[in-house]
Design brief:
The chain is mainly α and about 130 residues long. The protein has one domain. About 70% of the residues lie in helices and about 0% in strands. The protein has helices at about 5-15, 30-40, 45-75, 80-110. Helix 1 packs antiparallel against helix 4 and helix 2 (about 30-40) packs antiparallel against helix 3. About 25% of the residues are buried.
Length: about 130
Amino acid sequence: MNGNVETNRSWDVLCHLSALCMFIGIPFGNIIGPLVIWLVKKSDLPSVDAHGKESLNFQISLTLYLIIGTIMTVGLMFILIGFLLLPALIIAFCLGPLIDAIFIVVAAIKASNGQPYQYPLSIRFIS
């Protein structure tokens, strides 16, 4: 296999795996990691542009889902119904990172095979 193709695929994989920065304690690392890779390499490699957009869209979507869920739950606590939603929010904060990591690994594997990957429930902020 051509070394150039392997290098391109490495950058594609890195677009997805860089989202794991959140697990090493970097606030919003799940967004910052793919954003940096995408901004640096998008003009050089069309595949990085596509994978970077996909990764960013999913990470931004997931972050917004958790933020909006938190705001809604806390806001509804003032009328007591939010306390019923609290267990769901706790589950979302426990399962969210696990599900995120699973999707990141699946996307990275697809990227390493030269295949596109479309994350589920992703809002297309960047197109």
